[in-house]
Amino acid sequence: MNLKELSSLKLSESNLGSSTGSNWFGSGSKIDSYSPTDDKLIGSVLSTTREEYEKVIQEAERAKAIWRDIPAPKRGEIVRQLGNKLRAEKETLGKLVSYEMGKSYQEGLGEVQEMIDICDFAVGLSRQLYGLTMHSERPGHRMYEQYHPLGIVGIITAFNFPVAVWSWNAALALVCGDVIVWKPSEKTPLCAIACQNIIAEILKENNLPEGISSLVIGDAEVGKWIAEDERIPLVSATGSTRMGKQVAATVAARLGRSLLELGGNNAIIVTPSADLKMTVIGAVFGAVGTAGQRCTSTRRLIIHESIYDKVKESLVEAYKQIKIGDPLDSKNHMGPLIDKAAVQMYLDALKKIKEQGGNILLEGKVLEGEGYESGCYVTPVIAEVENHYDIVQQETFAPILYLIKYSGDVNNAIALQNDVKQGLSSAIMTTNLREAELFLSHNGSDCGIANVNIGTSGAEIGGAFGGEKETGGGRESGSDAWKVYMRRQTNTINYTTNLPLAQGIQFNL
Ligand code: UN1
């Protein structure tokens, strides 16, 4: 793979540092982006300095006054153009995602499809930013609410969905009348530059200020500038719980608003009536897809003792079919981990599983030899554990699947599934209506996403995406997630010649 194949994304060398005519600048320290697939240098990017950050925010401030004045359906038209350009670039951008991040090409395409879908959703939304009308308690008064743009929205994203998570935030924020400043993961800067080039071109074609969509590149320090910045009323951050706690505290200290989408520890409950074939497909894709690096990846299977051995054997069989290798080769199911640090975390987790009493059914190792030169390819692991082990309580971003046995009724399984600090995604495999409904009830799963007879990953953009507890409580993407990108205003209008006071108060002058 080389960048020439992706020339339409305009990632030429000259483009990777200084201003590209769009609102991002870099002259700071150099970030080299190596592909985890073959360890080759894809490109070097210069990070954004503090002075450049200031310039970017000032541009964004100027742009926000223009953008919020454009009617929402007209803003939707710009997002429609973004969706169309993404359709045209689906293969190239999907390839870049696959090459820079390491997920399979199919998943890279899937990620760009999510971007297209959220653009479509946002276009419709641009005519539906509804507020309610209320009946006033006072005669001759009208009361209603409106949603107004917030201003600048900061978007901090992780490496695992290097383009889609930006788009969930960007498409909604833009139709809501906000301008956006994006800090992508420094592990996938080229994906971010490609997206920035796409949107910058659309803004230019429409004679709109480039500050409507900006990019700042760098490490956690740049994230901190955004979190501290009083000019940024909303910070949407996706990543680890550790990062989220820092962002949340910093934003809260200035009473800003944050939207957090953090770690998961997602489980599938496998009940005695589960369809075994569906369970295996759902669990294997959930655990091994994206090499276990989705926040919705399946980490735990909570299996009833009566079918435990059968599920275990089927899984081990299925895992033997998994082909690991170059993610751009469609015969492979699983690509590499993002980098060597991730490989080390995987190895540390394996050690801890053993130390804490786990039984590893499929041993993990780092693959060597032809095609695996990057040192980032690992084998997927299945381990029998107990839910309370420290290592099981944590999210390890790697293809490690924990098997946990439950006995008695489904309440015991639900208790185990909820007994972790995270609360993102969950699922139950059952053909028993009572179990399914209990799982979805207030006594059931405590997660933001609860599924029946599908796995934990692969959420559609139409639903609100996010989770509870240490997952951070934020909701992105579909349903009414847009409301967090706007400020709500209640308006009361008196169309009489009297001034009656609310609550019947008399105030005679
Ligand atoms: C993430 O891992 O940050 O549900 C997002 C899914 C995808 C999104 C995952 N639609 O797996």
Describe the protein in words.
There is one protein chain. By secondary structure, this protein is an alpha/beta fold. It folds into two domains: 23-262 and 472-489, Aldehyde Dehydrogenase, Chain A, domain 1 (3-Layer(aba) Sandwich), CATH 3.40.605.10; 266-460, Aldehyde Dehydrogenase, Chain A, domain 2. It has helices at residues 50-67, 72-88, 90-101, 105-125, 164-175, 189-205, 220-228, 241-253, 276-288, 308-320, 340-355, 390-393, 410-418, 433-440, and strands at residues 23-24, 30-34, 41-46, 133-135, 141-149, 152-156, 179-183, 213-215, 234-238, 257-261, 266-270, 298-304, 359-362, 381-384, 400-406, 422-423, 425-429, 449-452, 464-465, 468-469, 476-477, 486-494. The strands form six sheets. A seven-stranded mixed sheet has the order 13-14-15-12-11-17-18, with helices on both faces. Strands 1-8-7-6-9-10 form a six-stranded parallel sheet, sandwiched between helices. The protein has a three-stranded antiparallel sheet with strand order 4-5-22, with no helix packed on it. Helix 2 runs antiparallel to helix 4, helix 3 packs across helix 4 and helix 7 runs parallel beside helix 8 (241-253). The longest helix is centred in the first third of the chain and has 21 residues, at 105-125. It is globular and about 80 Å long. The structure holds 2-aminohexanedioic acid (UN1). 2-aminohexanedioic acid binds next to loops.
